[in-house]
Amino acid sequence: MKVLVTGGLGYIGSHTCVELSKKYSVVIADNLINSKIEVLERLNSIAHSRVIFEKIDLRNKKEVAFLFEKHGDITGIIHFAALKAVGESVEKPLLYYENNINSLLNILEQVQQLNSEINFIFSSSCTVYGEPLNLPITEEEPIKKAYSPYGETKQICENIISSSSKLNMNLKSISLRYFNPIGAHESAAIGELPLGKPQNLIPYITQTVAGLREELTIFGNDYNTPDGTCIRDYIHVTDLANAHIKAFEYLIEKEFSTNEVFNIGTGKGTSVMEIIKSFQDCTGKKVNYKIGKRREGDVDATFAENNKALDTLSWSPKYSLEQALKSAWNWEKNYRKLNNE
Ligand code: NAD
Ligand code: WQD
Closest by alpha carbon to 131, among 112, 119, 148, 118? Predict the structure, then answer.
């Protein structure tokens, strides 16, 4: 079976392609707007079968039509391609609406013209919940007004997929709402590769320890949490990658068109201070940090209730937080060719 992976050279996409390649043939469509072509070689060095790459801008209808003409024999689509920087989306909302929504529309337009069944998985985010009313967050948590245009694109895309699934009997779909993916493949051949200054906590930590950044700023220690720093649900990217395979296999087994959502997290919350301590303990490296001001839009705590995915998809996270943090550091070291064990 052939699976189309949009955004497959990105962080989560590349890890998912490695897992997919154990059983499926994989075609990646990516325009490299937030990834590097060198990832393809790195990915193929650990893939179980060679993945094919198509340089396609999904905003471009003609390019998407070409993609589907060439690979009309796909049975699945995992749609990762999107812009994802929350702060940038506030400054450039049109870019985010255009990229994230038009890419999806162009793909679904082609899906509609196929006469075969498509199992479709969408990269959604815990950001769709905004500030949660209840913890842990279940899939029943009400969807509130999004904090950012980025978050709003995820809400809109989920709705578009749901309406399309109702009309197109060939379309079976799942939106996976990821919590905070971290870490890297155990080979350290691929990992998170932010272009420019990292926005997320873990790459900021690894780049600080690697000497690329002077110090980490903890965004506030006056939150309503035991140590005052924000709590998040950090999940190893390989566990997240495997959730896509489980979701895909679940859809294949479904007889009729369906549209479902699942939280993908560990179910455990960890504070920023706890992350720093665990990182130091499991790598033996000191993290330079200072306490700074709160970052706009951050909420005290988010972590998942993941029972729906555990029970329905027969998926469960396998890696510990320490393994995830260690793998993130191994990747950073390997990528920067650091030799400072
Ligand atoms: P990423 O930026 O590393 O990967 C996204 C890939 O999509 C990149 O390779 C980029 O070049 C490509 N892309 C973007 N727009 C494109 C377009 N118009 N045409 C073709 N390719 C395009 O991001 P990631 O962290 O791997 O995230 C993957 C998905 O998961 C995104 O949809 C993101 O919103 C979602 N998500 C990410 C996180 C996270 O913390 N990383 C959390 C929740 C959800
Ligand atoms: C984690 C914690 C920060 C950087 C983001 C998106 C969300 C989803 C997942 C896509 C927070 C703190 C961070 C730093 C810090 N992505 N922090 N100093 O904000 O939970 O979620 O990624 O869908 O939509 O918002 O992740 O890694 O940015 O932050 O203190 O330099 O680390 O305040 O508490 P976040 P993050």
Answer: 148
